[in-house]
Amino acid sequence: MTLEDGLRAIVGDSHVLVDGDLKAAFEVDWTRRFHGTARCVVRPSSTSDVAAVVRACAAEGVPITVQGGNSGLVGGGVPAGGEVLLSLARLADLEPVDRVAGQVTAGAGVRLEALQQHARAAGMEFGVDLAARSQATLGGLVATNAGGIRVVRYGSMRAQVVGFEAVLADGTVLTRLTPPAKDNTGYDLTQLLCGSEGTLAILTRLRLRLVPPAGPAAVALVGVSDTTDALAVLAAARSLSALAAAEIFYAAGLSLVRAYGSLPAPLAAEFPAYVIIECTGRTDPTDELVELLASVPEVGDAAVAADAAGRARLWAYRETHTEAISAAGVPVKLDVCVPLDRLSTVVASLADVVPTGARTILFGHLNEGNLHVNILDVPEPEVEKVTEAVLGLIAANGGSISSEHGVGRAKAAWLHLSRTPAEIAAMRSIKAALDPAGLLNPGVLFPPA
Ligand code: MLT
Ligand code: ZN
């Protein structure tokens, strides 16, 4: 019996895909930069089926690439070549919201938007939000410790995770979905798996905390002269108890987004940089936001919206960046974190490391200094050199080479820029203990030994 026959016996014939056309959508990531051929795609629908699939692959020493919504941007969810691609999309059960605990249990394949709607229907909210909400799934969001636009208020994905169920590389199931609210009994395995990028275990179910409903909201799109002035707006906005998001983008991104979406100019004049501030509170935060912006000399101009349609219109200038860039080409896409006191210097220095003729589009999460560096029109032979130069600049300024997208395949070779040799050795020891044969997501996170 072949491995494929064994997998069919576990998940059913129709959930083992071997045909090239059927596999194709699973074999390339959202950026179109990372792709590889999977031996087959297998789509289990329960933790026990995932465990059986893992045991079958382990018995034959066949590596597994784990995939959720395939919205990743670092090649972490697509095969390098020859792996069984294990799609978690069918683990999409959403249990009723536990109102007393303020928590919910959800399958790893539940899409973020579905969780958000589910929480809202129960009078709660989920604390993470990001532009890929309709595609990204919870398992991948936890595995990469995704961030998004609400980190300023609720933290990243790891701050939302209360418990988990996961399958280890030998098929063992770990279930720790509802641990006691306070529990100091040793290693925190939940947090260990957050950000582990599928290299230690396959997350199948998650217990997530919910937050109170956001309340009335107001959004400001603010034009400023440069990054330094954007930071002045952020500094002022920190006094707002209702601050819920602080984002940045620049003139080059705005012009791409406007052309892509046929959008009008957001402000009467053009500015080199733009900040989005969102406030949500128990009472309407609009007046407080408008007053604050009027008191900040660095604000060049601002558009403020309190109604849902107006807010969405302003957010579109920020949230359409990824799509607009992708429509313009396959960028070198680097998600980095820069200490705020180095942000202006780094933004200025990026121009020096980008090849002549390339277009650099910067945007991201201003509150954390989380820049999304997208460089278009880089000839393929120069991609590695450009990546090295940008990540080197970030490391030299005390930043991180991966802020919220993960390391994936894209940045594995540069892990040493953010982690010491001792840290990488410790991480490798953990990997070797939990996955001695290296079957889970090979090539992801770690550079080849
Ligand atoms: C975003 O903040 O919109 C995402 O991280 C996507 C991206 O970086 O392209
Ligand atoms: Zn982002």
Structural class: alpha+beta
Mean pLDDT: 97
Rg from alpha-carbon coordinates? 22 Å
SSE run: HEHEHEEEHHHEEHEEHEHEHEHHEHEEHH
Gross morphology is globular
- Report the span from N to C terminus: 33 Å
Bound compounds: D-malate, zinc ion
How many strands, what sense, and barrel or not for the largest sheet?
Answer: 7 strands, antiparallel
Total beta strands? 15
Helix count equals: 15
Can you give a write-up of this model?
This protein has helices at 3-11, 20-23, 47-60, 112-121, 138-143, 151-154, 189-193, 227-237, 251-261, 286-294, 308-319, 321-328, 343-353, 383-396, 421-434; strands at residues 16-17, 40-42, 64-67, 84-87, 103-107, 161-167, 173-176, 202-209, 217-224, 243-250, 273-280, 301-305, 332-337, 359-365, 370-376. With 449 residues, the protein is of the alpha+beta class. The protein is globular, with a radius of gyration of 22 Å. The two termini are 33 Å apart. The mean pLDDT is 97. Bound molecules: D-malate (MLT) and zinc ion.
